[in-house]
Every structure is written in structure tokens, then in C-alpha cells.
Design brief:
This protein is mainly beta. Helix content is 6%, strand content 41%. It contains 1 helix and 10 strands, in the order βαβββββββββ. The protein binds FE2/S2 (inorganic) cluster.
Length: 115
């Protein structure tokens, strides 16, 4: 799998200062609206569109179980895997995060014509 790695924070300190624990944020990268969330377990990125009815997951809340809860009908999703933990809708797309010396990056899958 080939990814475009896009820098979202200059370093971990910037990430900690700008991405509050349990307070997800929305970012747009290459036309993808992405919800980035930080929990005690780590930092995760999922599509900022609930697969149930399209609400913005970045307006939801994180739980201590590492889930993000949709603000509209309150269906929870595992931030690591994107799996629905309610079983009431489809899973949400996840994006990989990587930490490098020069920043924190989110990976966007390259399209076949970009390979
Ligand atoms: S829109 Fe997210 S749970 Fe219904």
C-alpha cells in the first residue's frame, strides 16, 4: 500500500499543545475530511463523516475505551480500527499516523494513477 504522508504537526510538542486530549479536530487533507483525536492510548485519524448518517465525528466525544462517539445518534467507533462497537452501522475509514523526527504525519492512500 502506498501513501502520501502529510505533515499535520511540526513535532509532538506542537501536537500536544494543539490537539487536546479527548477533543477531536477536523482537518482537510487532499480533499479528505479527517477527524484527528488524541486519547491516553495515542493519536488516531478517522474519516470525519459518520458512516451511519454523515455527521461530523470531530464534533463527537472520545471515551476512556478509546472510542469516538458520533454527536448525532451516539454510535461509538473504535478509534484504532474504525470498527463500529455498537454493531448498528458500518465501520469508519481509518488513516495511519506516524511520528518522525521532523513531524507528525497522516497517511492518505495514493490513487492508482498516482503510483
Ligand atoms: S449519524 Fe452518526 S450515529 Fe447517526
Amino acid at each position: 500500500m502506498s501513501y502520501h504522508w502529510i505533515k499535520i504537526f511540526e513535532n509532538e510538542d506542537a501536537m500536544h499543545n494543539n490537539l487536546m486530549l479527548g477533543k477531536p479536530q477536523s482537518i482537510v487533507i487532499k480533499g479528505n475530511k479527517i477527524c484527528v483525536a488524541r486519547t491516553n492510548e495515542g493519536v488516531y485519524a478517522v474519516a470525519d463523516r459518520c458512516p451511519h448518517n454523515g455527521a461530523s465525528l470531530s464534533h463527537g466525544q472520545c471515551t476512556e475505551k478509546g472510542e469516538i462517539v458520533c454527536p448525532m445518534h451516539r454510535y461509538p467507533f473504535d478509534l484504532k480500527t474504525g470498527r463500529t462497537t455498537s454493531g448498528l452501522t458500518m465501520n469508519v475509514l481509518t488513516y495511519p499516523i506516524k511520528f518522525e523526527e521532523n513531524g507528525v504525519f497522516v497517511g492518505i492512500k495514493a490513487k492508482w494513477w498516482e503510483l
